[in-house]
Structures are given as C-alpha cells and as structure tokens.
Amino acid sequence: MNGLDDGMITALTHEMLTVIDIAGLLVDPVFYGIGRARGDGKPVVVIPGFLGNDFYLQVLHKWLRCAGYMPIESSLNINAGCPERVTRQVLDHITSQLDGNSSSIALIGHSRGGGLAWALASHFQERVSHLVMLGAPVTSMMASVEAGKPVTTPVGPPARTLMRLSTTIRHAMDPDCDFPKCGCPFAANLIRPLSPSTQILSIYGRDDSFVSKESQITEGEILEVNTGHLGLVFHPAVYHALGRFLARDSRAHA
Length: 254
Hints:
The chain has 254 residues and is an alpha/beta fold. It has one domain: Alpha/Beta hydrolase fold, catalytic domain (Rossmann fold, 3-Layer(aba) Sandwich), CATH 3.40.50.1820. A 6-stranded parallel β-sheet has the order 2-1-3-4-5-6, sandwiched between helices. α4 crosses α5. The longest helix has 17 residues. The model has no long low-confidence stretch (mean pLDDT 90).
C-alpha cells in the first residue's frame, strides 16, 4: 500500500471519529443553553466547507438559534468552483436575508468556507463584529493570491488530494475562472486587512489531516481542539468557545 493510501486511510479514520464528537455534544449542557451567555439576536452567517452545503451545519444552526442568535444559511448547494462566484452568491443571500438591516453581523466558516468568511469580513469591514474560522486554510489561500499561483505549503497526501480535486472541479464548473491570478474581488478581499473592530477566532483540530499548521491563520485568538477536520463542526469544546466568543462586546474590543 503506497503512502497516499496510508495517509488517506488515516485521515478518514480520524474523520469517522466525528460520531464521538456528536455524541459528546448531545450530552454536554452547553448544547442545551446551560451555563452560557444569552445572545443578542445578532445575525450569524454560517458557510460550509469544500463540497459541503448547509445540511451538515444544521446542528450548529439549531444551537445558534437556541442561544439567542439569528443563523443565516449560505444558500450554497455545493461549495466548489470559482470562489468569486460562490462568495457573491453568499453575499447576495446575506443581503436579501437582512432586507436593509444595517446592524452588525457575525461570520462562521468551516474549512474552505473560512476563506470565504474572511473575504466577506473584508468586504463588510466594521460591520462584521465577530469572525470564526473552523479548520480554515486561510494563510495558504492568501499566499496563493499574493504569488499569483497555487502555493503548496508543507501538507500531507490527504490535503494534496483535496487540492487537486478542488482545482479539477473548478475547471469543470467554471472554466473561465483563473484564480488565484485573476485579480477578482474575492482575491482582493482575501488579502485586504480586516477592520480593527472585527474580533477573530480560529479553531483547529489536533487530528486534522487536511489543514496543516502552516495553512492556519495566526491573527486573533487561536484554539486547538482534540478532533479531526469535520469534527470541528460538532465538538463540544468548539461550542463552549463559540458561546464565550460571540457574547463578547465588539465595541469593548475596538
């Protein structure tokens, strides 16, 4: 068995342990609102990862709603293809859902969705009070834009496999997309500084085989959790951290 097979088997084994994270969340008091600060009704946009959609994020949506926030879905059927097209779809959906409401919003992005969330936070600037990225390879995405070509940080076989798959699907879905050297609004927003008033939380999985440490953003607060890549959506420690983080007053932070 070659190294690629070994790496993928190990990665998939870690991801199968997500069922333990789900079970742990369902018996944790934080999931039922015990011992957490009540939300202020803030809109919270949740963006899925590569090849994902809003379905697997429903547990997080339910928790946000019960916690006193207004979760907003991404509207994506699949997060794949041209990042500018995908981000524009999410942006248009946010605008329609808010219907003229100019209050502050929070953004949560898992995996590739974290990169989209960063670009949206750059677009909205001070309107985004809180930005959360779960296992997001934002640094690698930024480096690719700045270099004008894909930058492969030291990653294992599983991550390289996903990168090749992402490129193949993008060429098939959006043959005219020339990211990262296109200079599109997504690329520009990805490397533009965020508002100083935007609070940032990055959460990574200790057993994540798809996002290397070199790909992880180093700005803001960083938390490492004992889980894999998908487990970041369901691990109890993530929900404890989200409860504390989203309850922070962005004005005090600024």
